[in-house]
Amino acid sequence: MTEQEALAIQFIQQAKHLVFMTGAGVSVPSGIPDYRSLDGVYAGFEAPEYLLSHTCLKREPEKFYQFVKNLYHPEAQPNVIHQVMAELERTKEVAVITQNIDSLHQQAGQKNLIEFHGSLYHVYCQQCGKSVPVTSYLDDDFHEGCGGPLRPDVVLYEEGLDENNVQHAIRQVMQADTIVVVGTSLRVYPFAGLLDYRSPDAKVILVNKEATQVSRDTLTVLGDATKFFEKIKKSEKK
């Protein structure tokens, strides 16, 4: 175990109000590709941002539907990162703020969870407003009940974030004494901007494959996040 890993685990164990901020790198070990890597979701598409935009949904709903179905991985299961976060919630005050829309944190049993960009697994009819099972959406993008178009409850390009989610996330970050950022390069705003609300005394730990620039001093753990979380799991059992 490196010095950085040991110190990070110590901070996590001593934390009274622990906040995790997670990105696509957390779900990659579960078999869900990220967005911008060479073999990611966006690979091979000329204008992926357009395909995930409000404009595409309204003007070319069939094109939107065909693309968004690529984001679903119903076979994916929570990995050790999701599991450890959920386990820590049983013994201390923990919140998870995630950019991910795959609902794996929820599957792992996380209670205090803010899905900052929504979830692919919450689907509703744009005409009557009723929720429908995701399996229905994957079969057909029209509501069997009223015939209206269905959509997943995710924040698309050109759409605003849920203000309740934003305010809840800000409150959690303000209250945190320790913040652990995992699997994200912190390039997407306003998610990355949440760190601006942290207490000056809060410890910030970055767990990522590559270094991430933030404005204040942080403790950085470089490498495979799953291996680091395995070490947290072992330390919790001692």
UniProtKB/TrEMBL annotation:
Q: Residue ranges of the Deacetylase sirtuin-type domain? A: 1-238
Does Metal-binding appear among the keywords? yes
The name under which this protein is listed is protein acetyllysine N-acetyltransferase
Active site at which residues? 117 (proton acceptor)
Q: What class of enzyme is it?
A: transferase
Q: Provide the GO MF annotations for this entry.
A: histone deacetylase activity, NAD-dependent; metal ion binding; NAD+ binding
In terms of superkingdom, the source organism counts as: Bacteria
Binding-site positions, Zn(2+): 125, 128, 143, 146
Record's keyword terms, sorted: Metal-binding, NAD, Transferase, Zinc
Per the record, the coiled-coil ranges are none
Q: Name one Pfam family in it.
A: SIR2
**EC identifiers of the protein:** 2.3.1.286
